[in-house]
Amino acid sequence: MDRQAEQEQQLDRLASAPDTATPSPFAAFGMPGLGGPPAAAPPEPRPILELDGEEREDELDALSDWVDDFFLPVYGSEVTTAAPWCLQWQEHDGVVAWLHALWLAYQQHKDPEAGLSGLFVWHRDFLTHAVAAIRAPGGPLSACMTSPERPAHRILPGPPPSARTEKATTNTAEPAEPAEPDEPTS
């Protein structure tokens, strides 16, 4: 019982906020979390589909490296009609968006700050759902390779623009008809 009480007190001390009244002996080293100046915040990640030009190409190259070197060898199950794949997946914007989001989440959850369960959370909350969406029989790759012996690639057409967008486009494309002159009033 005494030992349990000691452990509870130790857990309470560890869970409480650090005492900021006494300066840290490590403050001079500028280490975050040890009383030094706060670390500069990393740049905010942007979805790959919002990037343009060389910035997008660089991000797509890095993503392709991760997909080819890590993701596919570990999680790329057999290609079947129930789990299609495409050797040209970079041309499918929806797949690129899913894989980029999955890669960003992977980077976050493998970071030491994510703790020991970080990668478990990534598997549970991100990987399973993303792979199911990407490789679904009716998903974005469903018109592509369903058998390794028959490589195929086809971009499926998306839905047309909404009626509201179509109407706005039509109104701006057609010149306005000239108004009839008003008849003079007597």
Report low-confidence residues grouped into runs of 5 or more: none
Order of helices and strands: HHHHH
**Strand percentage:** under 5%
Tertiary shape: extended
Oligomer: single chain
Question: Secondary-structure blueprint of this entry?
Answer:
Elements: H1 2-15, H2 53-75, H3 93-110, H4 118-134, H5 163-173
Helix pairs in contact: 2-3, 3-4
List its salient traits.
extended, mainly alpha, 186 residues, 5 helices
What does this structure look like?
- There is one protein chain.
- The protein is mainly α.
- The chain has helices at residues 2-15, 53-75, 93-110, 118-134, 163-173.
- The chain has a domain at 64-149.
- It has 5 helices and no strands.
- The longest helix is centred in the middle third of the chain and has 23 residues, at 53-75.
- The model has no long low-confidence stretch (mean pLDDT 82).
In short:
By secondary structure, this protein is mainly α. 45% of the residues lie in helices and 0% in strands.
